[in-house]
Amino acid sequence: MDTLVSINHLTKTYQRGPEKVEVLHGINLDIAKGDFVALMGPSGSGKSTLLNLIGGLDNPSGGEITVEGERIDRMSPGQLSQWRSRHVGFIFQFYNLMPALTAQKNVELPLLLSPLGAAQRKRNAEIALTLVGLAERRSHRPNELSGGQQQRVAIARAIVSDPTLLICDEPTGDLDRQSAEDILGLLRLLNREHGKTIVMVTHDPKAAEYATHTLHLDKGTLVEQQPDAH
């Protein structure tokens, strides 16, 4: 498989008062195109920091991050913003939907940055909502949807621009078990049937079972990499 994400000697240090705290220590990691990676580890191990760096939401203190042949660690904030809008979809624990907008208008939001006209934005949003099984709820606002349905809208919003990479931070952390399994099944479908590369932070071993690889971080160091049974 082709490598989609290549990370070399990655470090991240934060200034906390007078102290410098190194959160990531020389991470080396390759993620293949079409992979589904679960990133696990105790609180404070650096999982979300690594996820944010891969998704271009933050800059490393040292090392290299290459995604699809582009060195994103060298990009300016403006370049990173443009790169994210083209290449990355984000799914968070809390759905971050606009309460005043319908499901369809929420899904259209990333397309407002694109050159698409209103009719094409609407069409693309309908396609994404159909893919996540919510076409018939497209006129509903978030408060008229269950938690699982709201997360499906958030996933539709993440995929509407057809990104190569999906970044998921505890995507099932706020859901009951059945809704969580529905969302994980949808992510697996996006991975297997639609070729999306997924990197997912999770505390839930059952969620990690849906991934093709599980990576373990501890105190800012990658301690283990294991292919899952399936």
SSE topology sketch:
Layout: E1 3-16, E2 19-32, E3 36-40, H1 47-54, E4 62-67, E5 70-71, H2 77-87, E6 88-92, H3 103-108, H4 118-131, H5 147-159, E7 165-169, H6 177-194, E8 197-201, H7 205-208, E9 213-218, E10 221-227
Helix pairs in contact: 4-5, 5-6
Q: What would you say this structure looks like, in words?
A:
The protein is an alpha/beta fold. The chain has a single domain (3-225), classed as 3-Layer(aba) Sandwich (Rossmann fold). It has seven helices and ten strands. A hairpin with a 2-residue loop joins β4 and β5. It is globular, with a radius of gyration of 18 Å.
Strand content: 25-35%
How many domains make up the coordinates?
1
How many strands, which pairing sense, and closed or not: the largest β-sheet? 6 strands, mixed
For the terminal residues, how far apart are their CA atoms? 17 Å
Average predicted local confidence, pLDDT = 86
Specify the overall morphology: globular
CATH topology, which one? Rossmann fold
Radius of gyration: 18 Å
Total beta strand runs: 10
Helix proportion of residues, in percent?
25-40%
